[in-house]
Design goal:
mainly alpha
């Protein structure tokens, strides 16, 4: 298995690094009962994430959402090999639809 390159925080490549592309927030106003219980449970499902991240607006093929559903159910519906093949084939089809050549 190939080894990953060591990450050097002082390298020129790392200088412009940012994690802003992970800034996705969901704001939820707690009910009085939730405030009293000091606990809240929020079900995060692929349909909610799809809507919140506006995946259909970013990719109209539906592949991003389909990949999200595959990742969300990872290991609960199919074995790992089946899930990897699904992600690969879904992404390969997305590339075809967008005119991107892969290997």
């Amino acid at each position: 298995m190939p080894q990953l390159a060591q990450y050097n925080a002082k390298s020129p490549e790392a200088e412009g690094w940012t994690d802003k592309h992970y800034d996705f927030y969901y704001t939820y106003k707690l009910t009085p009962k939730e405030l009293t219980e000091q606990q809240v449970s929020i079900k995060i499902d692929p349909y909610f994430v799809n809507k919140h991240w506006k995946l259909n607006a970013k990719d109209d093929t539906g592949v991003l959402f389909h990949n999200l559903k595959t990742l969300a159910r990872w290991g609960t519906k199919n074995d790992v090999e089946r899930e990897i093949r699904a992600l690969y084939n879904q992404t390969k089809r997305m590339a075809e639809l967008h005119g991107v050549e892969l290997d």
